[in-house]
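re: ur msg from earlier - yeah i can do the flavin-adenine dinucleotide complex, just paste it... oh wait u already did. ok heres what im feeding in:
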Amino acid sequence: MIDVYQEIEEISGVAARKDELLSLHTTFGVGGPCDLMVWVSNVQALKEVITLVRTHSLPLMLLGNGSNILVRDGGVPGVVLRLAGDFGAVGVEGEHITAGAGAGLADVVGKATSQGVCGLDFLAGVPGTVGGAVATNAGSKDVWVSHRLVELRVLAPDLREIELGEGDVEFGYRHCSLDREWIVTGVVLSGYPRSVEEARQGVEDHLGRRRATQPVGEATAGCVFKNPPGDSAGRMIDEAGLKGYRVGGAQISTLHANWIVNTGGATAGEILDLIDVIVTQVRDRYGSDLDLEIGIVGKD
Ligand SMILES: Cc1cc2nc3c(=O)[nH]c(=O)nc-3n(C[C@H](O)[C@H](O)[C@H](O)COP(=O)(O)OP(=O)(O)OC[C@H]3O[C@@H](n4cnc5c(N)ncnc54)[C@H](O)[C@@H]3O)c2cc1C
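and the outut:
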């Protein structure tokens, strides 16, 4: 591993750190270490890192901002890859927003708003990256990233950077058909023009609604479960009497029952145990299983 680490670190456009704790890079604030965390700042560096990882048959995981993911306490073996540098670029031209996959959604929404481009309000307050948002098709109940997507650039498994068109990828509610071998490198999103004041107001209104109904600012990963068709996971968990229920430092939010909060010092194990309690109680009450919206990775 040491040799590979050195080889990877020597690639131009790469920064790397050994034994990096994932708890520092996930919004839940939990998760053990990976062997190597690697930040790549351009497509060439990305290709070279993947080539080396394949040559050495190392496990590889792509991480955005870690806001839709629960990393187990034993961490993640191998390399965790982050998109930095050029991948953080955001530009607005007319109604179109061009963004690298490593760009933060706050930056995307902020730049669009400052140019009077509306239509991305639903992403305000979502602490993810563009790549993570495409991979999870982030959004609200009815409006998703895929609805605003006009161009999608990816690194294909054969390491060619290509543009995918409509019909190449299937999107649904928190679903994107791209498999793990495909890396989103950038997007063009489209909004619609309004005055800057109107755009700002739309974002403010959205953030206000969030603050009133969600435990924003706490250590969470957003909604833990997908809403079953025509229903609300939060309502079901609430009606099962679980709001505020705790396992160690992990607690079901008293504000929104579909959110789990790390109240301080929770382990991934405690969050997983709390998830088990929710699934079991909801199954007992409703006779159906809730599907996870967050991804669970790593080893115990
Ligand atoms: C306070 C809070 C509010 C939230 N609100 C919402 C909301 O309103 N709507 C919503 O949908 N979600 C919400 N979330 C969840 C989360 O923020 C989104 O799913 C977000 O888009 C995930 O982005 P990320 O960069 O953090 O992805 P990560 O959690 O890092 O990764 C998620 C998945 O995407 C993959 N991935 C990351 N980058 C790429 C890439 N470049 N190419 C291919 N795959 C990639 C990862 O491998 C992983 O499988 C919220 C979370 C929090 C903490």
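cool cool. The longest strand covers residues 76-83. ping me if u need the other ligands too
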